[in-house]
Write the structure tokens for this entry.
Amino acid sequence: MVADLHVRAPRTAPDPGPTTRWWTRADRRVSPYVFIAPFFVIFTVFGLYPLAYTAWVSLHDWGIAGETGFVGLDNYATLMADPDFWNAVVNTLGMFVMATVPQLVFALILATLLNQPLRGRTLFRLGVLAPIVTSVAAVGIVFSQIYDRDAGVANGLLGLIGVDPIDWRAGRLPSWFAISTMVDWRWTGYNSLIYLAAMQTVPRVLYEAAAIDGASRTRQFFSITIPMIKPSLIFTVIISTIGGLQLFTEPLIFGQGDFAISGGSLRQFQTVSMYMFENAFRDFDYGYGAAVAWMIFMLIMVVALINYLITRRMR
Amino acid sequence: MRTTYAALVAAIALSVFPLYWLFVIATRSNDVIGDWPPPMTPGGNLFANLGRLFGAEEAYFLTGMINSAIAAATVTVCVVFFSALAGFAFAKLRFRGRNALLLVILGTMMIPVQMGIIPLYMIMVKFGWQNQLQAVIVPFLVSAFGVFLMRQYAERAVPDELIEAAYVDGCSTFRTFRTVALPALRPGAAVLGLLTFMATWNEFLWPLAVLETDNPTVQVSLSQLSTSYYTDYTLMFTGALVAILPLLVIFIAFGRQIIGGIMEGAVKA
């Protein structure tokens, strides 16, 4: 096809007359900008501008009636002394660690299992990926029932081994655990496919040489596989950080009823995103909400940086 | 090897069980909730539950489904088209500022979405778009991720010789894009389209902020079910089942392509 056109082209090429020449030149010069313009126009209006404006709003007393005065960094000062904000930060970080660490470990194990000559491997990969296609809200509903205090399957199973029913919504740790399992259920398979893709690019000869040298499978995993897939590890850690620190839907649906946005009656599982939403869209305190939004950004940057440094130093 | 299969089967059972459970409860009536052992087979109550779901006054479920279908379809078509257009330009056309602009796009992929939603809401108020469907469509018509993905794809999939040939034939740049690049980009565009559709269908925080309960997307309807009817488990489960149905259909029809897209993207990242 390529060669075909190439040979044919000169024969059918029309002689560019003087009238078409300026038009062609203008077309070549302007078209690239026209092609990328839709992205930049829409992104500037609905992406970049709101982002910059968030900073501006956060420096004001700004309610539903509009802006009522420049207050400088007052919103941030209030925020620093706001126990509900710090509670939300602790919850967010707690659930982030509780969800991400097992998620990535399980994903690694799953990828190692999938990275073998399997019969029906497409079916296995599809099965592992199935949770990602469900909506978060639907996941929240199913797990809300599983973790119901009186009627839930989780307590039913615990009852079989003689554990008393747990009120999953009542305390910090139980609710964090329940919410973390929702996140893990949804994302472990996705991460495992990313690791699998990386593992498949590791040259087989490395393992063969290691086997000849007498390295065990475990040793091979830590000395060959992990270092070779490090870029993918960093990628998943960063993606999980950005996603995990913005956690919103799962705890909101888990909350049910009137205490949904405050993450339980005692804010035991309210995340920073929920706190921003509560301030901006329930209490209509836009200025304060915008300050919280900036803190989410800072939080992500700090944690991403720490994660990056840790992952980079890893062998 | 046998342990490998056993472990994998167990993992898949875990990942598929909540979906199966979703279906089972959606076909039951509320009096089985809390039974031990819990029901593991479907019952005959699905249609009764569906009737209750679409009749549930505070959820506006049908409106939610229609709104989500319109929003997801529009966003998908536009994101794919604009991403292909810009991706092609970045990969194959020479112009001043190309690398700098591409870097800008890459940088924007790192920014958390939630950061800008308060001013975005103010813009919507100014436009008079609160509680209007376009509020959940227009801001999402372009995607940095999409542009990046299509650029990576175009780099390999569109041969320079074909573009040269089309130019010699007297094609304009847009015609070259339409007749030469677009057909070659089709597989990549399909993956982007699937991912975009699923992401838009699942969008939650922004629709919750900008739409009212009487004009929701399907996810907002679901959350409404979980606040107003949270004791009615079969109703919520039926809603969740209907809400994931389009995604399940896509997954069953195009699962392989989605896996391919995720794995290919991962290697390049």
Q: What stands out?
A: Chain A is about 70% helix and 5% strand.
